[in-house]
Amino acid sequence: MGWQTRVYGESHEGRPAAVLEDGSEPPPARPDGDGGGAVPGPGDWRICDGRAGASRATRVRAACACGWRGADAYPITRDADGDPRATDLSGVYQDWADHIQQVEARTVPLPLELEGLMQALEEKLESLTVQAPTAALKAVTVLERVAQLVGRDAATIVRAQGIPAHRMATALGRTEKEARALLQRHSSTG
Fold it and tell me: pTM above 0.85?
């Protein structure tokens, strides 16, 4: 698992990406056959050491699940055994964090009052979870129902207004595919 934010989750999951001598990237890790996770593949920057048929990466850069790639590449530092754990990833992470700030700047802003209410609600629910977990579950159930109803109404209005998927995706900080799936999910609730 790479870097995620609470708002965007897997939509903008960041990770260090191996950069080969020619500036290209090897393919990413492949899923394992039994569904238990990912088997490190030639795109896992830590094992792109040129041994056992793996590509040899000399640099690493920020990569995002949305397809974005950082412009800067940073050197991979390997010890005598080829272990890259000494590599400083702070620049890679900062490039991804800057990308997330750019994504956020393009999204539709929530009214400040609503942001404050949502933050306060989250804090109250976290506290309630410890003090009275069944009450927290009840509150979450009510919130899910409210979200379902409001989501259905919002999806109906978005469709009626003919807002294109690319505009909705930018406003939500998601891919077009995710924006269409979100619209479909909320359109089919009720």
Answer: no
